[in-house]
Amino acid sequence: MKKTTITTHLWDASEHLKSDEDMLNYLEAAFEDGDPTVISSVLGDIARAKGMTYIAKQTGLGRTSLYKALSSEGNPDFATILKVVNALGMRLQATSLNG
Which residues of 15-27 are buried (b: 16+ CB within 10 A; e: fewer)? Predict the structure, then answer.
């Protein structure tokens, strides 16, 4: 029996976020999931797709600290989340769960 070799590659979501609509839909899906680590990681993916240097300049935060805060191991404070969302040209909006 011949062995089949499978080659795998790391998948980076930021490489597939081509439009603002892609980024917005991705973030909305993360909010629907509701896991804070998923949300911060998705914001990191989107920030990398936009350009982390650009986001750092827009937020006034360090690029390295943004990479760390917006990773799956990060724990950004809410002010950082708001700054990043704003720098991405987005806003948070509350809606009712009941209707």
Answer: eebeeeeebeebb
